[in-house]
Amino acid sequence: MGHSEEEQQSTELLRAVVYVRISDDPEGTERGVDRQEADCRAYAAARGWEVVAVFRENDTSAFKQRTITLPSGERVRRVVRPQFRAMLTHLNDGQAQVMIAYDLDRAVRDPRDLEDLIDAKVLGGFTVRSVTGSLRLDTDSDVAMARVLVAMANKSSADTARRVARAAKQQAIEGAWHGGRVPFGYRAEAGELVIDPVTGPLVVEMYQRVLAGDSLYRIRKGWNARGILTTHGCAWSDRTLKLMLRNPSNKGVREYRPVMPDGSRAKTSKMQVKATWPALVDEDTWQQVSDVLDARKKARNFHQPGSGAAKRMYPFSGLIRCSKCGTAMIHRGGVYQCIQPTRGGCHRSIRSAEISKLVEEAVLATFEQITLNPTKRSSSDGDLAARVGLTATLDADRERLGRLDDDYYDGLIDKAMWVRQRARIAERIEATRREYTATLPEHAGPSIDVTTVAAEWEGRTPMWQYQAASLILQAVLVHAHPADMMTAVPKRRNESTEDFHVRRDAHRAAVLARRVEFVWRA
């Protein structure tokens, strides 16, 4: 009597787990694994088995290896399949008696994975089955046959990978599109890239805006507000904007980055040839924008001498100082604390949340005044008067840009007129910004427009916020707790919790107003 007849006659209700996998699913529809799961469930139902768990690995290769570090510190090459490992653990724990896969090559294509499955079966005592009948590990003959089939499947995958890599290199030599996800600004027609009439002008617009001095933050906010999505259908971030701007496809260049021996793709281009598709921007424009992004990155990573390369976590560290000893207070836990290394040094502290909120509100209020009425700030050197006029010019040109964009999107002007007028205004804005930057004092941080700080503050990095605050704020002095004020507010008898919180918050605000002193730059 065969194995299938024995299984069908068995009346014992066995628990089964289903493992499904597909190597390539670029669209993420999971239709392949859905079909496998349906067939595996039907296979289990026909034998009276209960499916208690399903382990799915969609768009996951069972052949490609990656370099990983084991807990022992040893670096090894392995096929990384978390769900496959989770299934083996599930079976070893005795939570199921049968493993079902659609086919042998859906379960394993790497000899090491097969040996792990064999070891788990020996230790756990579970049964291994497949819908096609190609996976069975009941006898030594079954195990030997599985090893042969996996070795053949592994070689087939290696041959395919080699042919695909050679074909990709040949495509790169010819400058042809390699397929896959279409770059933003293009669309695919008959296997070729052509400029998309909707997103193509948006890419050109972005290059012009960056050269005109617009920040990625402002562009990102505008695009997301207008409902412009990435090729993945997601909202834009600064990172995705940078990747799109640095894409060589935009300048009509086909880049080739081969897969390295460790399984990763080369970080630098190994070949660049003229592409067969049209360019969105010329090479000079593409390079100028790349240089601007590099300069902005260098400015963001700017640190004062001796500060090291640590990433800034708090925007006002270094500005908040002890009024007694003048030392910059350190953020520790929930407080800013003065820690003197000498004996008898003061240990003054203040709640970080309270002072950070107070400083941020004061800084933003000052920047809003600069934006709304810059003439209220005075300067003895005469540069401020020039900056006021330049700021008005910048604001007027930015308004012209906005109206020009609205006219184009509303169909009031054609594309040629829009591009010509926008280039003129962008060139004038860039010249004005250079003139404005030349009038800033030395402490004015790089690439920060004081007239737009208030609008850009939210969402910016702590390093950027620190540099912006340093333009107008010299220090925030923290005095000792007033002697005539309580350090803690006790709750009164019969006082409700809400009333107590209101009275406590009011007391803290009064104390904070007396303890904190702002030292503004002239």
From TrEMBL:
<dbReference type="Pfam" id="PF07508">
    <property type="entry name" value="Recombinase"/>
</dbReference>
<dbReference type="Pfam" id="PF13408">
    <property type="entry name" value="Zn_ribbon_recom"/>
</dbReference>
<dbReference type="GO" id="GO:0000150">
    <property type="term" value="F:DNA strand exchange activity"/>
</dbReference>
<dbReference type="InterPro" id="IPR050639">
    <property type="entry name" value="SSR_resolvase"/>
</dbReference>
<protein>
    <submittedName>
        <fullName>Recombinase family protein</fullName>
    </submittedName>
</protein>
<dbReference type="Pfam" id="PF00239">
    <property type="entry name" value="Resolvase"/>
</dbReference>
<dbReference type="InterPro" id="IPR006119">
    <property type="entry name" value="Resolv_N"/>
</dbReference>
<dbReference type="InterPro" id="IPR025827">
    <property type="entry name" value="Zn_ribbon_recom_dom"/>
</dbReference>
<dbReference type="InterPro" id="IPR011109">
    <property type="entry name" value="DNA_bind_recombinase_dom"/>
</dbReference>
<feature type="domain" description="Recombinase">
    <location>
        <begin position="183"/>
        <end position="299"/>
    </location>
</feature>
<dbReference type="InterPro" id="IPR036162">
    <property type="entry name" value="Resolvase-like_N_sf"/>
</dbReference>
<dbReference type="GO" id="GO:0003677">
    <property type="term" value="F:DNA binding"/>
</dbReference>
<dbReference type="InterPro" id="IPR038109">
    <property type="entry name" value="DNA_bind_recomb_sf"/>
</dbReference>
